[in-house]
Amino acid sequence: MDDEVARGTTAAGDPPHPDAPRRAAADAAPGDPQGRGSDFLLLDAAAVPATGKADWLAGRLRQAIADGRLAVGGRLPSTRLLAAELGLSRGVVTEAYRRLAEDGRTEGRRRGGTVVVAAPRPEPAAPEAPPDPAPDALFTGEPTTDVFDALRAAPARVDFTPGRPDLAVFPRTAWLRAERAVLAELSADTLGYGDPRGAPRLRRAVTDWLARSRGIRVSPDEVIVVAGTAQALALLNPVLRAEGVDAVAVEEPGSLGTRQHLHYAGLATPPVPVDEDGVRVDALRATGARAVLLTPAHQFPTGVVTSGERRRELLRWAQEGGLILEDDYDAEHRYDRPPVQALRALLADRVCYLGSVSKLLAPALRIGWTVPPPRYRAALTDAKRFTDLGNPVLPQLVLARLMESGDLERHLRMLRGRHRRRRDAVMAAVGEHLPGAVVHGAAAGLHLTVTYPQDVPDTALAAAALARGVKCHPLSWHRQLPGRPGLVLGYSATPPGVAAEGVAALGRALRELSS
Fold this sequence. Notes:
Layout: H1 20-27, H2 53-67, E1 75-76, H3 79-86, H4 90-103, E2 106-108, E3 114-116, H5 135-138, H6 147-153, E4 158-159, H7 172-185, H8 200-214, E5 224-226, H9 228-242, E6 249-252, H10 256-264, E7 271-275, E8 278-279, H11 281-287, E9 291-294, H12 308-319, E10 323-327, E11 351-356, E12 368-371, H13 374-388, H14 393-405, H15 407-433, E13 438-440, E14 447-451, H16 458-467, E15 470-471, E16 473-474, E17 486-490, H17 496-514
Parallel strand pairs: 4-15, 6-7, 6-9, 9-10, 10-11
Antiparallel strand pairs: 1-3, 2-3, 5-12, 7-8, 11-12, 13-14, 14-17, 16-17
């Protein structure tokens, strides 16, 4: 195991001096190739001929440039180092480098070393990949597992993809300041293998964050840091199966992406209708499922907030043996309503809480957390340990510092004002260009759901919109049962003027399709 086997230590157990390989190469007999070689191009000293050494080395370098192992801009090692590693005189290496320079392949740049500046013309490129599928192809039939990748790659001038935060306002300055501070105070031991549950400092910061913003009071030992909600679901799979759970009920409509993750794990996803109070508990009971995945603070995609009475019904269902997986995916983003407490704060033994910074900072950070019921904590810790030994520590510590310093809350306050203006622009444009349409879920979140009265399939409308350069999700992607057609429009990453232009294009497409 890489964390149990010591490599490159001296007889006394101390690590070798950084220059030890170079010194050993210099001290060895020049004519003895035993054990010599260079990591550069995997050159083997034993392969050096007795005569014509410069020819041999120049030939190897030319071949590496020709086949792309040495790309234009790549730097060659110093003549002194390469000579020492191969047991050659420095003059041999210098001569080989001179020949490459004469060929026009390399040039010397003083302190920049010897750099590749030209390579032979490559072989004719392979035939180009087939062109991107037509917009209609993305929205024909059931969505495939890679449908989000395909939509993300599709060119568009207006992107209403839901769940996409405004990455242009990622707090680079604050992140860089926090990263420098973390590196300045970081101990060497922190860079070793750590607790698979996550860095203690981040788990403490998360507990403070949850107590302040979600009403959840837990200790750092109850938090497990994960690579986003997607990984949390993957880690839960074997834990649930060990209890005989083979189905997780989901909201209807509900997130296609979440459903795909559950299906990949081999779990069934019986749909449970959502009404104006949240998921219907009578329908949940009828499925017979022992677990349900919910978004109670801001249901995706309808935006419904689970009512107090419906919460009490859910908690009664859970107390009878059910398990609630609470996906708190964008609860921080609210504008026209007061905050609502997380279900995990009300019933710790039967609710597994899932959260992340994907919508608050950036999904590429892959940082989230889960607060499981006590009986699952050890099994989930083992699942995390044997999956990846824990998240990378540096981003965890930087995020912890952002939380501790108040920079994350300041960023959130800035986002709320920015998102409110963008939401208002989309709503105004819907009122102007989509008469008769109904907007759902406007009080919070990063998206709106828009249903319309025309008898036009939402997949056809989404395809027509993409053909006009506007990306969005058809509501039917997020349904398992028949329902009203509609579109899910993410607005957080789209400036108001661009958003208005995009909604106008949607209106034109809908009029053409319904005429």
